[in-house]
Amino acid sequence: MTRAGFVALAGRPNVGKSTLVNALVGRKVAITSDKPQTTRRAIRGVSTGESTQLVLVDLPGVQRPRDALTERMQRRVEAELADSDAALLVLNAEEGIGPGDRWIASLLERSSTPVVIGVNKLDRLDRARTLEVLTAAAELGVGDDVFPISARTGSGVTELHGHLAGLMPESPFLYPPEDPSDQPERVRLAELIREQVLRRTFQEVPHAVEVMVDDVEREGDLTRVRALVWVETESQKGIVIGTGGRMVKSIGTAARRELQRELGTRVHLDLSVRVRRGWRADERLLDRLGIE
Ligand SMILES: Nc1nc2c(ncn2[C@@H]2O[C@H](COP(=O)(O)OP(=O)(O)OP(=O)(O)O)[C@@H](O)[C@H]2O)c(=O)[nH]1
Ligand SMILES: [Mg+2]
């Protein structure tokens, strides 16, 4: 008899949910960055063992919605949490536990889904601080199990994985074991490009950028990828292109390496930067982008 089910990750932006999903799956299925609100779509990352399949649902950080984009993100978080077999509340030990975490904990407490807490980024703390944060996490009063982890170094991740596996219901596998993610190829490639934009931009620019891959053509050992980088204003476009095109060139070089790793072929990447005013408020466009 096999076990299989969904584990939805909840937590404030930037606490390390996507890094943790990648660590639990053992492959990069979600992009990560030090900018809050990196994740915009629910991504299912699949970890299949001999008799258990864990489907990790990476989610946007829980936040107060500001526009159609963030409203959709928030609705998605609530729907996914309600449908999962377990919720994994991720806390950022480096910042300590605050009102945002308590609010999310109170949301989780109201549902009947079992809650497990992962106290993340413990590689940043000494032992005395670690103990303080673990105690504060237990005092949140949600979930019976608190796991000290570092998604970055992998410390504690195996123990957490084993515990989550034990919570899954008896069920046949839900996804083919060879597919590590449920995202279509074009979305995966677009996200890898966006990750490189996020690494190099600051303030409002990361939030204003979306990437759309509009063509992928394979020719033997070469894949040609054409992508549009959307921004909301001319000045953001200037920033993403950079002086003499230096910024977009650096984004392109780094993104091409990531796409090659993902596709296992050489890649020719054609990037153009376009202004698309108000895309974050455009419901039809958000549908087309698969942000729902
Ligand atoms: N030191 C340290 N940094 C970490 C750890 N886990 C994640 N990070 C860093 O924290 C930042 C945010 O990580 P993400 O995984 O993108 O966070 P997230 O919770 O998915 O963020 P959103 O998608 O914006 O909600 C990145 O710079 C990560 O490298 C960890 O265990 N230790
Ligand atoms: Mg994320």
Give a brief description.
With 292 residues, the protein is of the alpha/beta class. The chain has helices spanning 17-25, 68-83, 99-110, 127-138, 157-167, 185-200, 205-208, 234-241, 246-263, 283-288; strands at residues 3-10, 43-48, 52-58, 86-92, 115-120, 145-148, 210-219, 222-231, 266-275.
Question: How does this structure look, described?
Answer:
43% of the residues are buried. The protein is of the alpha/beta class and 292 residues long. The chain starts with a strand and ends with a helix. α6 packs antiparallel against α9 (246-263). The strands form two sheets. A six-stranded mixed β-sheet has the order 2-3-1-4-5-6, sandwiched between helices. It has a three-stranded mixed β-sheet with strand order 7-8-9. Helices cover 38% and strands 23% of the residues. Residues 17-18, 30, 38-39, 58 line the site of magnesium ion.
Tags for this model:
about 290 residues; alpha/beta; six-stranded mixed β-sheet; three-stranded mixed β-sheet; 9 strands; about 40% helix; binds guanosine-5'-triphosphate; binds magnesium ion
